[in-house]
Each structure stands twice: as C-alpha cells, then as structure tokens.
Design brief:
This protein is α/β, with parallel strands linked by helices and 301 residues long. It is built from eleven helices and eight strands. It has an eight-stranded mixed sheet, sandwiched between helices. Helix 9 links the parallel strand 5 and strand 6. Bound molecules: guanosine-5'-diphosphate. It comes from Microlunatus flavus. Its EC number is 3.6.5.4. It is an enzyme of class 3 (hydrolase). It is found in: Cytoplasm.
C-alpha cells in the first residue's frame, strides 16, 4: 500500500536493530537513537517542525520510561515511536460523520491533479458499499474534460452524476452545486459528493470559488485532497486551503508512488485535521479508510 514510506521503514528498522540485545539503554544510547530517528524522518521529508517535536518527545519519554518487565529496551523505544507516530497521524480513526438530516454534503477541495475526481469515484463506491445512496456533483467546470471525467468515474462506480445540462454553456459551479442539493432532496440521495475545480497552484480565484461553493452548499465535511508525492508543497498547500476554504479532513492520494512521502505524514499534525482516507492507485478499489495505528505499525514493520 505505502511505497512512499518504504525508505523510512527501512531506516527505522536499521536504527532499532542497533539496540537489539541491550539490556539497558544509557542516555547516550537514547540520544544516538533519537539522532538516527531524526535523520530518518528528515530524509523521508517529514516537516522539520514536526520532526523536532517528535524526536524531543521520543527522547524525553525514553529517558523517563520505567523499565517494564515485559519489554526490553529496544521494544520499549519501538513502542514509544509507534505511539508518537499514531499521534502525529491524528490518533483515532475518523471517517465521514453523516448528517442527522440527509443529505450529508461532502465537498472535495485541492489542487488540480491531486486526484479529486478519481477520489470522488472511490468515495462514491465506498459509500455505496456502506449502504448509502450517493450523488456525485460536477462542480469542476474549469477543465473542459472534468465533467466528462466525473461521468466516466460515476459510471464505473455505478452512481449517478449531477452535471450542468449540455448545451447550456459552461455553467456556474456555485449554481450547479446548489441545484445538486435540491436534486438530492427530490430524488432521495442521502449523500452528495461535490467535486470542485483545482488549479495547478494556489490562486485567489480558486480559493474564492471553493469558498463560494462551500457557502452555497454548507457542507457537513470538506475534504482536502492532496497528492502525497508533492513533498513539502503538500504542507504548504494544506495550510493555504485551511486558511482559504477550511476543511475537516484530509485525503492522501498516490501513496503508491515512489517519492518520499514524509510530508504527508506531517499534514495531520500541521493542520490539526485528521487523515480520513488514503488512495493508492488509479483503480476505484485502491482506496481505504486511513487508520493511524495501522499505518504506524506498517511503517515500523
Ligand atoms: P483532479 O484534477 O484533482 O480531479 O485529479 P484526477 O482525479 O484527475 O487525477 C489526476 C491523475 O492522477 C489522474 O491521471 C489519475 O488517474 C491519477 N491518480 C489519482 N489518484 C491516484 C492514486 O492514488 N495513485 C495513482 N498512481 N494515480 C492516481
């Protein structure tokens, strides 16, 4: 699932290996281990502020840890690192909170190419599997092919797509989004997933349009969709969207990539918002709820 974290996994494993067989850890051992962990995280492209805080906590906890009978020192450090990783990844698993009065409105925001449209299909398929009846909404009217792409994705997921009528000009994305809610009420869809336009970079118009759509549909959940392969830009982009639009949760895409994915590991901590879903391929099935504890275990092998 997580090729982007393989190097980090290997580095941490190598670090813990040096502790194996020790019956007690001196402060010097702990400091050396902390330095190794720091390098491993930085090499994986985890955000510097997040790394500093992480390493300081691990060092402090390791030094003050009571020697427990059940765990040897290296297991104890691994346990601390595991718990701290779960912490920076957001702690508890958190997915969509459904509205008491349907439809639950989910809005997708993010840069162009982040994987929003693909994600819309994956999310719709997942929602269907949970017994929901989702309506996908094409409010990305920026790219000429975006509506068509969402229709293709909707067809593959076996869900309905609400789009501006052809021949009606480009249409106004805010108007389309607004009408989609009426449509959902009329035809009893209980979840509405609104795909919005992105740009290649942060841009005031884009933010304004996303904010206008948000105001028009009053979403229950705004999901920020981000490509895990774009490095530290992922953190910068998250901050820009947090300020410009605001969001409730994060979706990491392209975790199947081969770039260093550490920036993605920083997003939950930097924004204070949970990672809800992870996407790891182009197929609609390559998608899952994000579990911080499972991800931490996987990174630690
Ligand atoms: P949008 O502009 O945000 O709507 O992004 P798209 O959904 O059009 O995705 C951009 C490109 O990334 C497309 O070629 C997708 O097939 C691809 N893509 C989306 N999600 C993933 C993923 O998780 N892994 C990989 N490898 N490719 C993805």
């Amino acid at each position: 699932l997580t090729a982007v974290f393989d190097t980090l996994s290997d580095r941490l494993a190598a670090t813990f290996k040096t502790l194996r067989g020790k019956t007690r850890l001196s402060d010097a051992d702990i400091d050396a281990t902390a330095r190794e962990i720091r390098v491993a995280l930085l090499e994986a492209d985890v955000n510097l502020a997040v790394v500093r805080d992480f390493v300081a906590r691990v060092r402090e906890r390791a030094k003050s840890a009571e020697l427990s009978g059940a765990l040897n020192p290296s297991q104890q450090i691994i346990k601390i690192v595991d718990e701290e990783l779960v912490g920076i990844l957001g702690g508890e698993t958190r997915t969509i909170r459904f509205a008491k009065n349907p439809p639950t409105v989910i809005m997708l925001a993010g840069l162009q190419g982040a994987g929003k449209t693909t994600l819309a299909g994956k999310l719709a398929r997942w929602l269907k599997g949970q017994g929901h009846s989702p309506l996908l909404v094409a409010a990305d009217l920026q790219r000429p092919n975006a509506v068509n792409q969402l229709q293709v994705v909707g067809q593959r997921a076996g869900v309905q797509v609400f789009a501006p009528e052809p021949g009606n000009g480009v249409g106004d994305p805010v108007d389309v989004a607004k009408r989609s809610i009426e449509e959902a009420n009329r035809r009893l869809f209980d979840v509405v997933v609104v795909d919005t336009a992105g740009r290649l970079g942060i841009d005031a118009d884009l933010m304004q349009q996303a904010a206008d759509i948000r105001d028009a549909v009053d979403p229950d959940e705004v999901l920020f969709v981000v490509d895990a392969m774009i490095g530290q830009d992922a953190v910068n982009t998250a901050n820009a969207f947090a300020e410009g639009v605001g969001f409730d949760g994060v979706v990491l895409t392209k975790l199947d990539g081969d770039a260093r994915g550490g920036a993605a590991l920083s997003i939950a901590r930097v924004t204070g918002k949970p990672i809800m879903f992870a996407s790891n391929g182009e197929a609609l099935t390559e998608f899952d709820v994000f579990h911080p504890d499972r991800m931490a275990s996987r990174i630690l092998g």
